[in-house]
Write a structure and sequence with these properties.
about 0% strand, single chain, mainly alpha, about 65% helix, 11 helices
Length: about 300
């Protein structure tokens, strides 16, 4: 019998005991953590590397979390949901002790999973667009067709259009869980869950900006992502209250917010350019005054 099979049978037969011991061993230090947080990060998008007990535990957790999603509509983002998911995978209900933050672990897992799915979709879209552009260039190089306009389906999207489609695609992933998503948003807003929620949100906006073509390496890198995070959260709040067909009011709201963001970016650039001009003008006037006063003369 292989070591992997023996370990699998041992964990199944002693799962309740192992989970109980691990849960109890974690409770002591957690009492000193502000806000009751466990201080642990799920990081479901970054699984452990190597063949170890941590890898096996990670896979078990992932199976339980994925299985638990089907019970969210009945029990919400709760320990009961995790227990149901564990039982459906053949583990005892006490397996929920593997998730110290309860339902928050399930929300973080689903959020990170959706982010990964969107990133894969955007990457494929960008690669397809680049391939199409390369083929069009090769076909039209040196021919009269060089002046032809590309078809609507082949037209390269503007940055605003690309971001709008990406945000809409990501928000549509919420729709199957819309009846319980306000509860999920409330859980993410709790102080002990806010750090990882913010991390997941910024990872999302970073992916969108990256595949939209942003390669800024200055302070704009931060302002763009934080601004888009604000647009995403405000649109998400609008969406959970939207009763229109196919959430058309939400997408209109999103387009207006992105247009506001675009105009704010233009204004910020003008202010920056104006500040540079004003600074250069002030420096020139200062030099002129010094020259008139003879302060810049080495023969003075």
């Amino acid at each position: 019998m292989s070591a992997c099979v023996r370990r699998s049978r041992f964990l199944r037969n002693n799962f309740a005991f192992i989970v109980s011991v691990r849960t109890l061993s974690r409770r002591g230090p957690l009492l000193c953590t502000p806000g009751g947080s466990t201080g642990e990060q799920s990081n479901w998008e970054e699984p452990p590397s190597g063949d170890s007990e941590e890898d096996y535990e990670y896979e078990i957790k992932k199976r339980i979390l994925n299985a638990s999603l089907r019970y969210v509509h009945d029990h919400g983002w709760t320990i009961t949901t995790l227990s149901k998911g564990a039982e459906s995978e053949g583990y005892p209900s006490v397996a929920h002790g593997m998730f110290p933050r309860g339902g928050a672990e399930l929300v973080h897992h689903l959020y990170a999973t959706w982010n990964a799915q969107l990133a894969a979709t955007l990457r494929q879209e960008v690669e397809a667009s680049q391939q199409l552009e390369s083929e069009r260039t090769q076909q039209q190089d040196g021919s009269e067709r060089l002046q032809e306009e590309p078809a609507d389906g082949d037209r390269k999207k503007s940055t605003t259009e690309f971001i709008s489609n990406a945000v809409e695609t990501r928000l549509r992933m919420i729709i199957p869980y819309m009846d319980k998503w306000p509860q999920a948003m409330a859980i993410l807003a709790l102080p002990q869950n806010a750090p990882e929620a913010m991390k997941n949100l910024l990872n999302l906006t970073d992916d969108i900006w990256y595949y939209a073509g942003d390669r800024s390496a200055d302070f704009n890198w931060y302002t763009k992502r934080l601004a888009l995070a604000g647009v995403y959260k405000s649109t998400e709040l609008c969406m959970i209250q939207d009763k229109s067909v196919d959430y058309t009011d939400t997408w209109d709201f999103l387009d207006r917010r992105l247009e506001d963001l675009k105009q704010a970016g233009k204004l910020a650039r003008k202010v920056t350019e104006g500040g540079q001009v004003a600074g250069e003008s002030f420096w020139g006037l200062t030099q002129l005054a010094c020259n008139l006063a003879g302060m810049n003369s080495y023969k003075r």
